[in-house]
Amino acid sequence: MTKKVGQRAPTGTIVEVQKGSYEILWDDGHRSIATSDGIIPLKKSK
Predict the structure, then answer these.
(1) CA 12 → CA 23, 30, distances in Å?
(2) Cα dihedral angle (12, 18, 21, 26), rounded to 10 degrees?
(3) What is the pLDDT along the chain (46 residues), one digit of tens a residue?
(4) Largest CA-CA distance found in the chain, in angstroms, rounded
């Protein structure tokens, strides 16, 4: 991910590592999976 001009860079914490993928908990509360293919957003649970 690249920072756009005037936009804060997203920050988060890696919460799980599994077979070359990383689950990230972002500071705004959403989660994503980062792989060599890119970042995949996870749907929020209801």
Answers:
(1) 10, 9
(2) -20
(3) 555 677 777 789 999 999 889 999 988 888 999 888 887 777 765 5
(4) 35
Cβ-contact 31, 42 below 8 angstroms: yes
Q: Counting runs of H as helices and runs of E as strands, what totals does the chain give?
A: 0, 4
Q: Count CA atoms closer than 13 A to 19's CA, side-chain side.
A: 0
Three-class DSSP category at 1? coil
pLDDT at position 42, please? Answer: 76
Separation between Cα atoms, residue 42 and residue 19, nearest integer Å: 18
Length of the chain, please? 46
